[in-house]
Amino acid sequence: MSTQRQIGLPAELCLAAERKFVPQFANLESLLEFVLRELIEDKAEALDRKEQELLEQRLRDLGYV
Fold first, then answer.
1. How far apart are CA 26 and CA 33, in angstroms?
2. What is the largest CA-CA distance in the chain?
3. pTM of this prediction?
4. Residue 17 belongs to what domain range?
């Protein structure tokens, strides 16, 4: 297991997140770990590239490119 660090967050933010999301996660830490990993993956950029490729292919199919 990797080394862990402590961070400080506002208590009201933690309580709101626990109320809303902890039923889906074991605890607040696992929720935050999931969110941070998702943000790091940067899937939006990959989707943008895929959309760009689809658009270019459609233009080629129509004879514009």
1. 11
2. 58
3. 0.58
4. 11-61
As given in the structure block, the two tokens for residue 13 are 């933010």
18-to-5, 9, 33, 54, 64 alpha-carbon distances in Å: 20, 13, 14, 40, 52
Tens digit of each residue's pLDDT (9 = 90 or more) over 9-63: 999 999 999 999 988 999 999 999 999 888 887 766 766 778 888 888 888 888 8
The CA-atom distances, in angstroms, between 53 and each of 10, 35, 61, 64 are 43, 28, 12, 14
Q: Is the separation of the CB atoms in 65 and 59 below 8 Å?
A: yes
Number of domains the chain is built from = 1
**Rounded CA separation 4/28 (Å):** 14
- 62 in helix, strand or coil? coil
